């Protein structure tokens, strides 16, 4: 019935499911009147969004439809080896406003069912649960692992996958080791509050897009960092912040009793009012030596010693007071920073961005923060320095102490992931939105393309109408910024209890405080 003018063609690369279409009465499970076949395709909407679309092909002949159905099915089963058939799903029911289960069952599971993907689902019961599941499960049975949650969950799952790979390959992770790649691709369905990882890999926070990347088997290699202290691996991750970024997260965790968004805004305000520089020794190995470092594993002892010596000479050291130090292996896109917290790095370029913010006035620091949300260069300040690096060592002058008060439950997860539970001082690190406390000395190293994720490299992310989600301020407004600075100056003269009361008694946004 379709005229030549309306003829459309569909590339089989875009097709992910085919079904017989039947008319059934309410409650009828099987049989029904045959109407034809329906093919399901993945379509691109806008710059980064993916969606499913159904195309109905009408034909009343059972035989004819069967032939087409079988033919299309054979193509789908035989020609796309990267598309997963069996997935391990890990859902954190506590992410953000506890919507992860709903996101999965309402938006993602129906698409997986359509694509005939089988799943094995774990709903996590506590922090570290995903890690222990990945440690024990029959990993070879799956084609991929998918986590539903925020950055903390995604990072825990990535860390679990990578540690499992090292254990299976019998690597001694506490020496200066060359890690093996993760055994399976990782999919991230965003259901957290910031979703930096998902934003960076998909260019958008959109569960359906994430699901379509998984179904279509779109794969993207991603660089990973290892974090170690005193030659002991603490964890794998993608980004870390020390100073303001770490303190803000520690405060947000402390005020967990507040509603999710409110506590994060409050933590930012409180960290800004108490802004204090950390006295640190920062050493880093710039990227120009990368190719030599990468080859380390392939050379003999003498060559390796020469390279180590050469790299030793190239290390640069700064000993000063820092307001914040960020080390990022991925661009860390989020609604607050649409170009990324580290716009100069790529998902798979084998290097990290080091952003060192030295001591400055609070007003200047806020100006620097504000620029993450607009088109101005956030690094164009005399107190901000950026480098492209392979390795970073940070030693804080505060002695955080090393105690081992560890509960039996999760002891294994915590002993790696959060090494110290009762620090004497406070040296909080923000690693992928998770708190890593009590480590006064951290060595961060890049491992190029150590993990594969479902998604596509996002080179450009164009959204100028963005708002700063943690301060709730329209970032284009200079007026709000100066009001904010004034307010913070005033608030910082009062005790913290007053600041908390003042914040809680005001309406939700910082604007209303100002
Ligand atoms: N059942 C659970 N109860 C409490 N915490 C959990 C549970 N399952 C997982 N967790 C932990 O919750 C932490 C935070 O979760 P997640 O990062 O997904 O959410 P979020 O903080 O809201 O999002 P984002 O990191 O994007 O801001 C993770 O580190 C994870 O280990």
From TrEMBL:
One of its GO terms (cellular component) is membrane. GO terms for molecular function: lipid kinase activity. GO terms for biological process: sphingolipid metabolic process. InterPro entries: ATP-NAD_kinase_N, CERK_C, Diacylglycerol_kinase_cat_dom, Lipid_Phosphate_FormReg, NAD/diacylglycerol_kinase_sf. Pfam families: CERK_C, DAGK_cat. Residues 82-231 form the DAGKc domain. It comes from the Eukaryota. This is DAGKc domain-containing protein. It comes from Scyliorhinus torazame.
């Amino acid at each position: 019935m379709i005229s030549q003018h309306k003829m459309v063609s569909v590339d089989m690369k875009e097709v992910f499911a085919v079904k017989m279409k039947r008319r059934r009465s309410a409650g009828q499970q099987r049989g029904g009147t045959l109407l034809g076949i329906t093919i399901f395709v993945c379509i691109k909407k806008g710059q980064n969004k993916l969606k499913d679309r159904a195309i109905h092909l009408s034909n009343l002949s059972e035989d004819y439809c069967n032939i087409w159905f079988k033919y299309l099915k054979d193509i789908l089963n035989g020609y796309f080896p990267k598309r997963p058939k069996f997935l391990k799903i890990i859902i954190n029911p506590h992410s953000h406003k506890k919507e992860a289960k709903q996101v999965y069952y309402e938006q993602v599971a129906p698409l997986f069912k359509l694509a005939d993907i089988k799943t094995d689902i774990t709903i996590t019961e506590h922090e570290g649960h995903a890690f222990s599941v990945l440690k024990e499960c029959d990993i070879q049975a799956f084609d991929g692992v998918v986590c539903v949650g925020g950055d903390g969950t995604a990072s825990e799952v990535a860390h679990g996958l990578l540690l499992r790979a090292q254990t299976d390959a019998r690597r001694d992770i506490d020496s200066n080791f060359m890690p093996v790649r993760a055994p399976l691709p990782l999919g991230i369905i965003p259901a957290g509050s910031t979703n930096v990882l998902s934003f960076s890999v998909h260019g958008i926070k959109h569960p359906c897009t994430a699901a379509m990347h998984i179904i279509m088997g779109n794969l993207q290699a991603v660089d990973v960092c290892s974090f170690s202290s005193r030659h002991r691996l603490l964890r794998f991750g993608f980004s870390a912040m020390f100073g303001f970024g770490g303190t803000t997260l520690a405060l947000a965790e402390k005020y967990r009793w507040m509603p999710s968004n409110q506590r994060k805004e409050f933590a930012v305000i409180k960290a800004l009012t108490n802004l204090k520089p950390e006295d640190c020794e920062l050493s880093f190995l710039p990227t120009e030596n990368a190719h030599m470092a990468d080859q380390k594993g392939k050379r003999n002892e003498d060559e390796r010693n020469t390279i180590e010596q050469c790299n030793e000479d190239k290390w640069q050291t700064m000993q000063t007071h820092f307001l914040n130090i960020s080390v990022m292996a991925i661009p860390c896109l989020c609604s607050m920073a649409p170009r990324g917290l580290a716009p100069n790095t790529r998902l798979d370029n084998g290097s990290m961005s080091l952003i060192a913010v030295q001591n400055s006035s609070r007003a200047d620091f806020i100006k620097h923060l504000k620029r993450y949300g607009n088109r101005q260069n956030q690094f164009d300040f005399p107190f901000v320095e950026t480098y492209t690096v392979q390795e970073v060592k940070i030693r804080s002058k505060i002695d955080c102490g090393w105690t081992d008060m560890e509960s039996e439950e999760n002891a294994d997860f915590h002993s790696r992931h959060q090494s110290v539970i009762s620090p004497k001082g406070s040296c909080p690190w923000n690693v992928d939105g998770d708190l890593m406390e009590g480590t006064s000395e951290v060595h961060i190293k890049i491992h190029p393309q150590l993990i594969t994720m479902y998604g596509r490299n996002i080179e450009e992310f164009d959204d100028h109408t963005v708002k700063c989600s943690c301060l709730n301020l329209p970032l284009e407004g200079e007026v709000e910024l100066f009001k904010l600075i004034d307010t913070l100056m005033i608030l910082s003269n009062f005790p913290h209890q007053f600041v908390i009361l003042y914040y809680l008694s005001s309406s939700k946004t910082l604007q209303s405080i100002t």
